[in-house]
Amino acid sequence: MLRAIYPGSFDPVTYGHMDMILRSSKLVDELIIGVLNNKAKSPLFSVEERVRMLEEVTSDIPNVRILPFGGLLVDFARRVDACMIIRGLRAITDFEYELQMAQTNHKMAPDLETAFLTTRLEYSYLSSTTVKEVAAFGGDISQFVPAPVADRITEKMKKKESVD
């Protein structure tokens, strides 16, 4: 069985992420979406919220499983018995960083391969950070994220405004 991990923060999941999930799920027997719990960052959504959103927007893809993880990706890959990491590339700057990470991961786990998929042109500009910035200023994010995700972002922004 070919099991791969598509790791990320997914804070929030965007249509660019969804495109990568759909495309990579067709290449493997099982695709695990690894939702990173990075304690160094202050995400908009908790890991649990991000997992729930991903479960909702990928529920129609039968070979996708959503799991949270912390620590090293290579350790997570060993725990779930994955032999491949899938990463998306938007631009040359992504490639430089991702190549360095792939080489580091390969040094720590020589049997773990990394596959790069380039994003579709219509998503090459899109990032979770951009979505959060647009939402923070009240912009329409419906063209960037699935509807259930847009609703949750709007709720979060309203709560933040009421606290500020």
Automatic annotation (TrEMBL):
Pathway: Cofactor biosynthesis; coenzyme A biosynthesis; CoA from (R)-pantothenate: step 4/5. It comes from the Bacteria. ATP binds at S9, F10, H17, G88, L89, R90, E98, Y123, S124, Y125, L126, S127, S128, T129. One of its GO terms (molecular function) is pantetheine-phosphate adenylyltransferase activity. The keyword Ion transport does not apply. Its EC number is 2.7.7.3. The record marks H17 as: Transition state stabilizer. One of its GO terms (cellular component) is cytoplasm. Keywords: ATP-binding, Coenzyme A biosynthesis, Cytoplasm, Magnesium, Nucleotide-binding, Nucleotidyltransferase, Transferase. Residues 5-133 form the Cytidyltransferase-like domain. One of its GO terms (biological process) is coenzyme A biosynthetic process. Its main location: cytoplasm. It is found in: Cytoplasm. InterPro entries: Cyt_trans-like, PPAT, Rossmann-like_a/b/a_fold. Gene3D superfamilies: HUPs. Substrate binds at S9, K41, L73, R87. It catalyses: (R)-4'-phosphopantetheine + ATP + H(+) = 3'-dephospho-CoA + diphosphate. Its cofactor is Mg(2+). Reversibly transfers an adenylyl group from ATP to 4'-phosphopantetheine, yielding dephospho-CoA (dPCoA) and pyrophosphate. Belongs to the bacterial CoaD family. Homohexamer. HAMAP family: PPAT_bact (MF_00151). This is Phosphopantetheine adenylyltransferase. The gene is coaD.
